[in-house]
UniProtKB/TrEMBL annotation:
Any single Gene Ontology cellular-component annotation: cytosol
Keyword set includes Hydrolase: yes
InterPro entries given in the database record: GH (IPR017853), GH_1_N_CS (IPR033132), Glyco_hydro_1 (IPR001360), Glyco_hydro_1_AS (IPR018120)
Protein name per Swiss-Prot or TrEMBL: 6-phospho-beta-glucosidase
Single GO BP term: carbohydrate catabolic process
Family: Belongs to the glycosyl hydrolase 1 family.
Keywords: Glycosidase, Hydrolase, Plasmid
GO molecular-function term, one example from the UniProt record: beta-glucosidase activity
Catalytic-site annotation from UniProt: E382 (nucleophile)
SUPFAM superfamilies with a match to the protein in the record: (Trans)glycosidases (SSF51445)
Length: 484
């Protein structure tokens, strides 16, 4: 590990934080916004199993379920207050997403909702007022539900045109103000759970991996077309892909487990970035199709040329944890899951309250793997610790556990940069408390700023600075030199 005193990052490093529209904005049906897939997903630890059931049909049932993300943290009405707090911390960048259904309520319209565009223009201008670089994710689990129900999500090639239209509208509007963009959030998450990023559920063929690979192909083409549009609009614009990245270790030295971890690494960590960064399907693609019992997706004339000529400029990725793989003797290991991954517990690591294994060194491993493979800049656009925070008798939130988590990961980031990795920036997840994607809870908190809301949407919505707020402010002010 590096000495704390030597942990200084390069000038221009993009320190900041990250959120997603569907988890913080609220106002889910206000000002012409349509219903998104995220709006139909209920609160609770059984959230994903409900969505994965054959009966799930994208309908909202207020009598049966609770939907905290309908209110979020009311960022839609309080963004000026929130951006001011980010500026007080010294943010250089703020990563957020544009809710597709706020611009095109159903997704297949020709003309956009001007009220939605105006909201994001105000949000962007508020960032720029404080010298904060907006980092925009075009699609962050916020597909209009109409596209999932009527068109069966991304397995339908028509979505390429709808997404291209949506992206062209927001790029034409904001490219002169926003340099950094990403197309699809955690595009590889569909390997485990396609409802979020592909809009596929059981009734629309989620269990058939042929549909998932077809959906990916359509997303790859759409993403490449967006890169083309962006590069034609602005010479210095940067468009990245975005994925989950997690080291997948063999549980032991058995070669069978090593091979299984290699296969999972290719399928989960490399496949989507291989296509988007290199511009072509990898040589192991047939191996994946065989492994997942899938047919070759339909590829139209011209698709491969589009992929080849419009590769992304950088790799954005989320890093929270690692996972161990054991296919030889399950009796020797306990199952583990987290961040849309399944595996077994690594006996050398501790876990968070939600069972996500904490592995700071794994971030250095990940950065080196990605840099060695692609040689394009990296951008850590999510990283953080979900935990239950308590307000003490003095009205303070002393989240030392979060500081410890982030500090260790920042040290690993710096170590990887000394290894030779090119890292653009770091935007920890949930810089302000928001509704968790995995469980729909407020009690799973990530932020530097506490929001007074419970899992049922009750509370004052007051913003309270945590101990980590002041710590991160010092980290940014010293460019990483002060971590204690």
């Amino acid at each position: 590990m590096s000495d704390f005193k030597k942990t200084v990052f390069p000038a221009g490093f993009l320190w900041g934080g990250a959120t997603a529209a569907n988890q913080c904005e609220g106002a889910f049906d206000a000002d012409g916004k349509g219903i998104s897939v995220a709006d139909t997903m209920p609160r609770g630890k059984d959230r994903f199993s409900i969505i994965a059931s054959p009966d799930f049909d994208w309908e909202i049932d207020q009598n049966k379920y609770n939907y905290p993300n309908h209110l979020g943290i009311d960022h839609y009405h309080r963004f000026k207050e929130d951006i001011a707090l980010f500026a007080e911390m010294g943010f250089k960048a703020y990563r957020f997403s544009i809710a597709w259904s706020r611009i095109f309520p159903k997704g297949d319209e020709v003309e956009p909702n001007e009220t939605g565009l105006s909201f994001y223009e105000q949000l962007i201008d508020e960032c720029l007022k404080y010298g904060i670089e907006p980092v925009l994710t075009i699609s962050h689990y916020e597909m209009p539900v109409h596209l999932a129900k009527v068109y069966s999500g991304w397995k339908n090639r028509k979505l390429i045109g709808f997404f291209k239209n949506f992206s062209r509208v927001v790029l034409n509007r904001f490219a002169n103000k926003v340099r950094y963009w990403m197309t699809f959030n955690e595009i590889n998450s569909a390997m485990e759970f396609p409802a979020l990023s592909q809009g596929l559920v059981v009734s629309s063929g989620a269990q058939d991996y042929t549909n998932r690979f077809q959906a990916w192909h359509n997303q790859f083409v759409a993403s490449a077309l967006v890169v083309k549009i962006a590069h034609e609009l602005r010479g210095d614009i940067q468009v990245g892909c975005m994925q989950i990245y997690a080291p997948l270790y063999a549980f032991d030295s058995n070669p069978v487990n090593q091979f299984a971890s290699q296969l999972k690494q290719r399928a989960f960590n490399y496949f989507t970035s291989d296509v988007q960064v290199r511009g072509y399907y990898p040589s192991y693609f047939n191996q994946l199709l065989k492994e997942y019992n899938a047919k070759v997706p339909e590829i139209k004339d011209g698709d491969l040329e589009i992929l080849k000529n419009n590769t992304v400029d950088y790799i954005g990725f989320s890093y929270y944890m690692s996972m161990a793989i054991n296919v030889t003797n399950s009796e020797k290991s306990d199952p583990a899951s987290g961040n849309l991954m399944q595996g077994v517990k690594n006996p050398f690591l501790e876990s968070s309250e939600w069972g996500w294994q904490v592995d700071p060194l794994g971030l250095r491993i990940s950065m080196n793997d990605l840099w060695d493979r692609y040689q394009v800049p990296l951008f850590i656009v999510e990283n953080g610790l979900g935990a239950k925070d308590e307000i003490d008798d003095n009205g303070e939130i002393n989240d030392y556990y979060r500081i410890d988590y982030l500090k260790k990961h920042i040290i690993s980031m710096h170590d990887a940069m000394e290894d030779g990795v090119d890292l653009m920036g770091y935007t920890p997840w949930g810089c302000i408390d928001l509704v968790a994607a995995s469980t729909g809870e407020m009690s799973k908190r990530y932020g530097f700023i506490y929001v007074d809301l419970d899992d049922y949407g009750k509370g004052s919505l007051d913003r309270i600075k945590k101990k980590s707020f002041y710590w991160y402010k010092d980290v940014i002010a010293t460019n990483g030199a002060k971590l204690e």
